[in-house]
Design brief:
This protein has 194 residues and is α+β, with helices and mostly antiparallel strands. Helices cover 41% and strands 23% of the residues. The strands form two sheets. A five-stranded mixed β-sheet has the order 5-2-3-6-7, with helices on both faces.
């Protein structure tokens, strides 16, 4: 029987989680925890699968040059889930992404896919915001890109300062979005119908 690399990594992760349970004072042999190390290993592989995916290839797979559209394209309220790299606790929220095409547009589903690929890595919100912006700018070469992310962080809500209603907002932009009027239009459009 051939065991692929993913299976081998999953088994190794499960062994580490079993050791963690023991270090926490738990009995990994008790009924409720017997399958927990493997479940957690599978979950961690899923939650970090973005390392194995290429966001630029996703955008390139649906690039169209025929359209002569030079106005803002916005995909808003993109749900995402990530793990903070400092505590490996979840942070989650919504990403709002806009770009102004120069030569290319991309399939609308590709923008949320790019968000997911970067979110499915150990992250900080600031880097996540920049990586999405830079990927779209580099791949589509638009007249400008803007990304706004609003998120709740479990590392702030479950531990530390324990502020359950806090929301963190980050933004980054290039090109035409450096003009206050263009940024304001984007912000107004993502706030409408909420």
């Amino acid at each position: 029987m051939v065991i692929d690399e993913t299976e081998r990594e999953r088994e190794a992760l499960a062994e580490h989680y079993k050791a963690i349970l023991e270090l926490l004072g738990e009995d990994p042999g008790r009924e409720g925890l017997l399958k927990t190390p493997m479940r957690v290993a599978k979950a961690m592989q899923y939650l970090t699968k973005g390392y194995d995916e290429d966001p630029e290839a996703v955008l390139r797979s649906a690039m169209f040059k025929e359209e002569d559209y030079k106005q803002m394209v916005i995909v808003k309220d993109i749900d995402f889930f990530s793990l903070c790299e400092h505590h490996m606790l979840p942070f989650f929220g919504k990403a709002h992404v806009a770009y102004i095409p120069r030569n290319y547009i991309t399939g609308l589903s590709k923008i949320p896919r790019v968000v997911d690929i970067f979110a499915r890595r150990l992250q900080i919100q600031e880097r996540l915001t920049m990586q999405i912006k830079e990927c779209i700018q580099r791949t589509l070469e638009p007249l400008g890109v803007m990304v706004v992310i609003e998120a709740q962080h479990m590392c702030m809500q479950m531990r530390g300062v324990e502020k359950q209603n806090s929301l963190t907002t980050t933004s980054d932009f290039t090109g035409f979005f450096q003009q206050a009027k263009t940024r304001e239009e984007f912000m107004n459009l993502i706030k409408s119908h909420r």
